[in-house]
Amino acid sequence: MSSVRHTLVKFLFLLISVVYVANAQKPCCLPNQYQASLGQTIVSVMNMNTSTAVGTLSVGRETFAYDFTSKLVGSFNSLNVTTSVGVFPVKSHTISDYKLSAKWTIVNNKCTVEKLTQNMSSPCISDDATYLGSLVIGGVLNGHQWIVKSGAINSSYTVTDKCIPIDITTYTYSKEGLTLTTNTFADFVPNIDDPGTFFTVPKDCPKPPEDWIII
């Protein structure tokens, strides 16, 4: 549990302690279709206000495809999940179809489906985002950072001058607990090489109920 808290404090400190050079900058839009490799860290703490607080730390990689035109998101994850009882490797494939309001998760050849309860995220940084300023990464890469607030979700977007994502960090807090997810981008391309690999639902996966409302 202490390692989870240490990691959470570290990420929050990095998020708020960087000094930026402010200048006028308008929010931008990522491509409607893209894929990338992500370095991913997820810190989750549930039951925070009780003596039975449970924390997990997940670290690994994700191959991610985003298609706003077809309302599809697909990802392959390989994470090491640390809990109070040990470290467990988890590999998964997820497919989200926002036209059907359905998300499939495949783990160890077992497929489950759940209802999507939120709209698909836009490729654009919202107009009401707060611009924090510019920064230089590694002395050569110019970046810009915005903070987007939506209810209990706070997101930090760091992008290049051409709106190529460098890092997206999302912080969610509720009475059930909090989750901090950091995605660091690599191998970004503004298209999807093989959509079927990401978005084809296996034949043995359950179908979503017909009464699920299309978002």
Report on this model:
Helices cover 10% and strands 53% of the residues. It has 215 residues and is mainly β. Mean pLDDT is 86; it is low at 9-23. The protein is built from two helices and eleven strands; from the N terminus they run αβββββββββββα. The radius of gyration is 18 Å and the shape is globular. It has an eleven-stranded antiparallel beta sheet with strand order 6-5-4-3-2-1-11-10-9-8-7.
CATH domain class: Mainly Beta
How many structural domains can be distinguished in the coordinates?
A: 1
Query: Low-confidence segments, ≥5 residues, pLDDT <50?
Result: 9-23
Rg over alpha carbons: 18 Å
CATH architecture: Clam
As an assembly, this protein is single chain
State the helix count: 2
Estimate the helix proportion, in percent: under 10%
- Mean pLDDT over all positions: 86
Overall body shape: globular
Give the strand line-up of the largest sheet.
6-5-4-3-2-1-11-10-9-8-7
- How many strands in all? 11
CATH topology: outer membrane lipoprotein receptor (LolB), chain A
What sequence of helices (H) and strands (E) makes up the elements?
HEEEEEEEEEEEH
Q: What is the strand content? A: over 45%
Overall structural class, as computed from helix and strand content, comes to mainly beta
For the sheet with most strands, the description reads: 11 strands, antiparallel
For the record, give the distance between the C-alpha atoms at the N and C termini, rounded to a whole number: 37 Å
